[in-house]
Amino acid sequence: MAVLTARPDKAADLRQLLDGMLAPSRGEPGNLRYDLWVDQADPARFVLDELYVDEAAVAAHRASPHFQAYLTRVGDLAERSAFVLNPEAVA
């Protein structure tokens, strides 16, 4: 899971970057969920909710060209907090 808050005047650019991650990430082997949320109280804050079958699928995602391209841009567009969580009660 990642929480991204757009830098001033960068919300539209961040949204475009995040939208571009949806299809390729959802199409990865081992991806179970890759959802984008927008904070109702702050439309410049986004949450990525990701779920993969195992650590190998996560590693493959992180090594993918689209994720590497995302990493080169996201720091200029947003403050980012990433959380790696273990599923405890996931439906």
UniProtKB/TrEMBL annotation:
Q: Which protein, by its recorded name, is this? A: ABM domain-containing protein
Q: Where is the ABM domain?
A: 1-86
Q: Name one GO molecular function term.
A: catalytic activity
